[in-house]
Amino acid sequence: MEQAAEEAIQKLSALIDQADATLKSEFEIMHQGYPTETMARFLKARDWNVDRAHKMLLDCLNWRIENDIDDILSKPIVPTDLFRSVRESQLYGMSGFSKDGIPVFALGVGRSSYDKASVHYYVQSHIQINEYRDRVVLPAASKKHGRLIHACIKVLDMTGLRLTALSQMKQILTTISTVDDLNYPEKTETYYIVNAPYVFSACWRVVKPLLQERTRKKVQVLNGCGRDELLKIMDPSSLPHVCRKEGSGSSRRSTNSDSVDDCYSAEHWFHQEMYNYMKQQSEATEDPVAPIKQGSFHVAVPEPNPEGSKVKIVKTIEAEVHKIADQNGLEDSVKGLELNNR
Fold this sequence. Notes:
InterPro entries: CRAL-TRIO_dom, CRAL-TRIO_dom_sf, CRAL/TRIO_N_dom, CRAL/TRIO_N_dom_sf
Structural class: alpha/beta
Radius of gyration: 20 Å
Oligomer: single chain
Pfam family, one: CRAL_TRIO
Number of helices: 13
């Protein structure tokens, strides 16, 4: 680690030592024995500015305490029919590991509808996957490989991406991205974008130069379903189902025969293991006679803190989307489209 980075971590550590006992206790729970690496993540997210990283970390700790995030894995979404509905409309799951032992997650960006439950359930589900990843998946991978593995790989499937859907899902997508940006920084090593339609590729060409180099290096847009490139870093068994052949992009529905292979499906091993883990945690904390409580686990989402560069990027995307739509006679379909710059 470079000297400047070490000095920044030492300064941030000294500031954390001045926090009250409740915050320091929450920090110990969150870092799981890796305080230096955790502080480094927050520093990277704030360009190694100690004061800004300190504020971000304290805000995160307070958010976790105020919203009982430490207990969220004991709050499974019930009944199971509702859990299945969430999984059918929020396409997100783990497909396996890279050859280096890094967990691989896939997201069906283009065909997630978020229309079968309230926004609270989708936020709850997303945070639960984050927490299960951090508390169960990553520690197990680190133990298996004898080294710290603190981030994952994400494959973003753009199959079915439509301009009108961007506006309709603006609230939930902004909410989820805000939760990740402010409370789970630097948890993704690389984003691989697959099955990208023309509208995305065109916007990406414009936006890419505006991104910081660190962010730009994390994003790779692959040809087609990305199968050949992804097989260089993972075995076929870990390849997301949407990448196994051209035209195999995400689907909202899975038949009984392929649901076990579909990492978005509630029947997939990852979701089955996670859901069973949560039920066990719930049974260990609740009255053993009482049924698991129904109702979503409401989490307050902190207000984003936009910076000039982010606003510029969002405005550029808006302009490019409207330009592409106008060129293709689709302007009416995106009229009123404004991406949230938060």
